[in-house]
């Protein structure tokens, strides 16, 4: 199923170590989602999705609540969702999702991160067509065949349900994210290792030596940018 779940979760685990930075980014994302509609996750699916995702990164409740309270109050910062696409060494492709209150700053920072680390930023649509937008859930303690049968009984289409490294991994349609999560919770699954929307590459490339070193530096710089929320790529890890 494209990029293996193990690669995705390894990247997520590495991010977990940078708690303060991750928490700050989620605070902004939750605030922006709450401002985009009702500041109530029951009435705002976008907000609900961000909160559920934040929980898998162990974002403390007080940070979530503070961001929602800010959106309810006098906060008037306006954020835009932006997507940048580009190339790294030797056929590697990168998608950068950002949330910003200063488009010029973000575009300049992302372009510099590509250009100074062996890559170059492309036009919109340059690489996204080589990735599949996917709702992805993973959790322990269940049987993949049982989960697949259960989800089919709920009339939910899933792309795949597999077992990897002791986890059941569900790949679904992006539009079914909330329905899939509700169905899994109804089955008694409350702890998710991952509950994400992922851009999964249709094909992966392997980098070695200087190419790999340059690529990893480029990804690190991109992920460290204040406005960048997620980075996806097609390099096998």
Describe this structure in words.
With 237 residues, the protein is of the alpha+beta class. The protein contains eight helices and eight strands; from the N terminus they run H-H-H-H-E-E-H-E-E-H-E-E-H-E-H-E. The strands form two sheets. Strands 3-1-2-8 form a four-stranded antiparallel β-sheet. It has a four-stranded antiparallel β-sheet with strand order 5-6-4-7, sandwiched between helices. Strand 1 and strand 2 form a beta hairpin. Helix 2 runs parallel beside helix 4. The longest helix is centred in the first third of the chain and has 17 residues. The protein is globular, with a radius of gyration of 18 Å.
Write a concise synopsis of the structure shown.
43% of the residues lie in helices and 23% in strands. The strands form 2 sheets. A 4-stranded antiparallel beta sheet has the order 3-1-2-8. A 4-stranded antiparallel beta sheet has the order 5-6-4-7, with helices on both faces.
Helix content: 40-55%
Overall, the morphology is globular
Q: Give, in spatial order, the strands making up the sheet with the most strands.
A: 3-1-2-8
Please report the distance between the alpha carbons of the first and last residues. 15 Å
Order of helices and strands: HHHHEEHEEHEEHEHE
Relative strand content: 15-25%
What is the number of strand segments?
8
Low-confidence stretches: none
Radius of gyration: 18 Å
Q: What is the mean pLDDT?
A: 88
Task: Give a short account of the largest sheet.
Answer: 4 strands, antiparallel
Q: From the helix content, strand content and strand pairing, which structural class follows?
A: alpha+beta
How many H/I helices? Answer: 8
């Amino acid at each position: 199923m494209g990029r293996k779940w193990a690669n995705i979760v390894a990247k997520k685990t590495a991010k977990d170590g940078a708690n303060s930075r991750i928490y700050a980014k989620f605070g902004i994302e939750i605030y922006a989602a709450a401002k985009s509609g009702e500041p109530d996750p029951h009435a705002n699916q976008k907000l609900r999705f961000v909160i559920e995702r934040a929980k898998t990164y162990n974002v403390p409740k007080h940070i979530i609540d503070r961001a929602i309270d800010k959106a309810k109050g006098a906060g008037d910062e306006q954020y835009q969702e932006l997507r940048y696409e580009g190339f790294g060494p030797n056929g590697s492709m990168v998608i950068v999702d950002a949330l910003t209150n200063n488009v010029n700053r973000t575009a300049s920072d992302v372009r510099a991160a590509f250009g100074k680390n062996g890559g170059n930023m492309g036009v919109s649509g340059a690489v996204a067509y080589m990735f599949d937008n996917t709702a992805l859930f993973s959790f322990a303690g269940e049987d993949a065949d049982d989960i697949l049968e259960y989800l089919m009984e709920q009339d939910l289409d899933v792309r795949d349900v597999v077992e990897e490294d002791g986890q059941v991994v569900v790949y679904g349609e992006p539009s079914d994210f909330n329905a899939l999560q509700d169905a899994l919770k109804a089955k008694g699954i409350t702890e998710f290792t991952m509950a994400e929307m992922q851009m999964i590459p249709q094909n992966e490339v392997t980098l070695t030596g200087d190419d790999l070193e340059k690529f990893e530096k480029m990804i690190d710089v991109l992920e460290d940018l204040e406005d960048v929320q997620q980075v996806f790529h097609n390099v096998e890890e």
